[in-house]
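Just scan my protein:

. . .
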Amino acid sequence: MDCLNDRQVAMLAGRITKSGTLQAAVIEIMVQRIPFALLLMKLAVNLLAAVTFLIRVEFICGRNEQLWTEIVLICCLVLFFIDEF
């Protein structure tokens, strides 16, 4: 749609208005975008929470506990992926 001018967009909108099949296809594409955007937002929030938690754990336990922080990060990522499947 980026390359279309106003006249072409209006013509396409008219075709979609008249065709139930095209309306169903447009709705299907729009429905698929929303869950993907929510999934990305949830991933970003979970990663932010995990990174914040890891920074706090390193502050409390000291910098010598690198293995502990990596294990916690891997567990958080695995739980996120299990939750999404």
Residues 14 and 26 are 13 Å apart (CA to CA). Residues 6-84 form one domain. The mean pLDDT is 78.
